[in-house]
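Hey, can you fold this one?
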Amino acid sequence: MDTSGSPGRDRRALVRAWWRDHVDYRWLVRTLRASGALGPIKAVVGAGGALIFVITVLNWISPTGPTGALGNTIYALDVLAAGLWALFWWFAPWPSERVSLLLLATADVLITAGCLSDSDRLFAAMTAMMLIVTGAYLTLFHGSRILVLHTLWAVLTVFMLAVLMVVIDGGALAPSIAVVLTMAAATVGVLPPLHFCYWLLRMDALSDPLTGLLNRRGLDYYLSGWFDRCDRTTPICVMTVDLDRFKTVNDTLGHSAGDQVLIRIAACLRAAALPGAIVARSGGEEFVVVERLAAEAAAAEAERLCRAIAASDAGRTPVTASIGVVVLEGDSRRFRPDYLLRGADEAMYRAKRSGGNTVVMAGPDENVPVSPRSSHG
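Sure. Predicted structure:
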């Protein structure tokens, strides 16, 4: 995001970034499992299904419940689904992203069908508040677009209830409008802003405070998601960029000057990298750039970045970089993201041993030097 623009433009860019961000569901599940939190969350989600099971049974046998064969059939399905939901979350493994979305979509449809089957519309509107429960799950585990679709569905559900109040039941218009506005406030006014705040905190945790680039955790997050979403025909190249003799800058000019160099190189990489690339500061004076390039194009791109860094001083502290490159394509796609990073690191160290200001390209099983140049700086 360009912080030199107006606040309004910055806010719009922030909202666009939130809207376009793809939540890495697998990474999130792995992180929760590693921290020991996945089991308790499964238990809570299952308990929510058990609670909905009890609520649905009570609604079914109450005077405000469904009438007619269709209504009773819908409620029977709701009761069965709520019971299966609880058992699934308590005893089955955590679902994949696709299964998770299917479960939540089914829950939304059944909740809406049950609400529309109630004979008391105001009571049905209260029951529709269960859509906030499913929305809370989507807020935590899925992206903004999925949540917005759910929010629109919730508002549509209550709008249909309001129409039934006025057209079928002959109810007053004012209470019907109040029901729609209440549900809109509870969904539109709570869940998307909550998701946006959650996204901001997640981005802050995944970002380097000095340069504004992704940190190592952010790199792992986005590289893992990239790797999972690309098909086997899409090449992925990882470039590890390490500044040459950066310790000398800190020792002779001080850490403040060193910080300014890091900020400058981060801006250089951000500007020079191809659109859609992942650019991260993985630690110290080391950066990582990930792009969708085949081997020949990746080598040329790394050379271009190396030249851009060497030319970025503009009269200030001159800096060069050693760059290691790994490209995965075809059969080599069997390797995982951690292998990419390790291979790029090894190639980068070869570049440094060659004198710096050099690009070294590594294959899946070997390192191959590419266009070494003499170091200057």
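The two ends are 31 Å apart (CA to CA). Let me know if you want another pass with a different chain boundary.
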